[in-house]
Write a structure and sequence with these properties.
single chain, 441 residues, mainly alpha, two-stranded antiparallel ribbon, 18 helices, 4 strands, 3% strand, Azg-like, transmembrane
Length: 441
């Protein structure tokens, strides 16, 4: 085992890898509870039952996808990077595809499955570098920042801090409401933990908020902590039964968005964490193909079990900071996700005010990419800004991506920078233009 994971070469040992894997798990364990709540549209009242995914089934699917993805990453790619269903992508799945577009969640899972298969094929064929190089860096950063604003907006809504206002669309909610006060308490607690550098600050923030909610009678006390593993039957295999419904412009854009965000989110996370761990060689990432394949395989498995796109987690950097250097840490993280399957009764205490702080804090972390955009070049600033602002204002990640990818070739052509536009960007321009024409029709 030590030889396979190259402990001596990396200067590590079992205890460091175990602590690193546990730290990574605690840093991202919040997804076990946030993901089921998000995919079931738990914060949206008065929806038909068929629009909601089963929370118990999604909980199991989330844990399985995270465990399988982390195992693949650890054993095949040998990196201390864990995977789980991605924040932002789960919001896109629920609030954009299902709630706004009216696409059945079963069909949305088919879209996730297809995007994972395409990702795997691109990785095996070696075309990933071509695609990565075709998308300008500024648009990648803009998409990340836009998703951050979008899920923060959802978090404020779930908290009751931002509410509907017929006069000005949105406004400030009732800050004296008990549920809203609980969410505000959670936000402050989580911020304090994060500022103090507490490992797993988001997870512990949710835990403290839940306990406070129970104490003040805002959340019902769970009848048990440990229970049986929830059945995955309501969601398992549903992705296979709706593949015939994905051949539309609307679903093509959905699939491309799943693929695009996962593709670049994973690439960025791999480089960032590997660089932190000192695993980069001559500014290149060894075994990059295996790492990307592990990510795509996890997405396929997750879609089959019943969850949104699985991706590499930047929270893995917490494990690296704690000493993780090898893939064994990811194996440890996978083990904790499997162990977590027995704690499903805690889903009952994970309400909208409890998940809201997690969404807001993750949003804050994601908008850091704003500083990487060259705002002094107007031809870049326009598509970047429109990408970012369109996501929360239209309540759609896909719309933000589409707007940015339409305006980028236009502004670049007007600036006389035609040679800098990759041919793939022209193809995306027409696809996203057709998307808007389809919606208008």
């Amino acid at each position: 085992m030590k030889k396979y994971f190259e402990f001596d070469k990396l200067g590590t040992n079992y205890s460091r890898e175990f602590i690193g894997g546990l730290t990574t798990f605690l840093s991202m364990a919040y997804i076990l509870f946030v993901n089921p709540f998000t995919l079931s549209l738990g914060a949206v009242p008065d929806l038909p039952a068929e629009m909601r995914m089963d929370q118990g089934a999604v909980f199991t699917a989330t844990a399985v996808a995270a465990a399988v993805g982390s195992l693949f990453m650890g054993i095949i790619a040998k990196y201390p990077i864990a995977l789980a269903p991605g924040m932002g992508l789960n919001a896109f799945f629920s609030f954009t595809v299902v709630l706004t577009m009216g696409v059945p969640w079963q069909t949305a899972l088919s879209g996730v499955l297809v995007s994972g298969i395409i990702f795997a094929l691109l990785t095996l064929s070696g075309l990933r570098e071509t695609i990565i190089n075709s998308i300008p860096a500024e648009l990648k950063f803009a998409v990340a920042a836009g998703i951050g604003l979008f899920i923060t907006f959802i978090g404020f809504q779930n908290a009751g801090i931002i509410v509907k206002n017929d006069a000005v669309l949105v406004g400030l909610g009732n800050l004296r409401d008990g549920q809203t006060l609980l969410a505000i308490f959670g936000i402050f607690v989580t911020i304090m933990l994060m500022v103090r550098g507490v490992k797993g600050g988001i997870f512990f923030g949710m835990l403290i908020t839940s306990v406070a909610g129970v104490i003040f009678g805002l959340i019902d006390l769970p009848t048990q902590v440990v229970g049986s593993i929830p059945s995955v039957a309501p969601t398992f295999g549903q992705a296979f039964f709706n593949l015939d419904q994905i051949f539309t412009i609307q679903m093509l854009v959905v699939i491309m968005t799943f693929l695009f965000v996962d593709f670049f989110d994973t690439a960025g996370t791999l480089v960032a964490v590997a660089n932190q761990a000192g695993l980069m060689k001559e500014n290149k990432l060894p075994r990059a193909g295996k790492a990307l394949f592990a990510d795509s395989a996890a997405t396929i498995v997750g879609a089959i079990f019943g969850t949104s796109t699985t991706t590499s987690y930047i929270e893995s950097s917490a494990g690296v900071a704690a000493g993780a250097r090898s893939g064994f840490a990811s194996v440890v993280t996978a083990g904790f996700f499997l162990l977590a399957l027995f704690f499903s009764p805690l889903l009952g205490v994970i309400t909208a005010p409890v998940t809201a702080p997690a969404l807001i804090i993750v949003g804050i972390l994601m908008v850091s990419s704003l500083g990487k955009i060259d705002w002094d070049r107007f031809e870049i600033a326009v598509p970047a800004f429109l990408t970012i602002i369109a996501m929360p204002l239209t309540y759609s990640i896909a719309t933000g991506v589409a707007v940015g990818f339409i305006f980028y070739p236009i502004t670049m052509l007007l600036k006389g920078r035609r040679k800098e536009i990759h041919p793939i960007m022209y193809g995306l321009f027409f696809i996203f233009l057709a998307y808007f024409i389809f919606l208008a029709g």
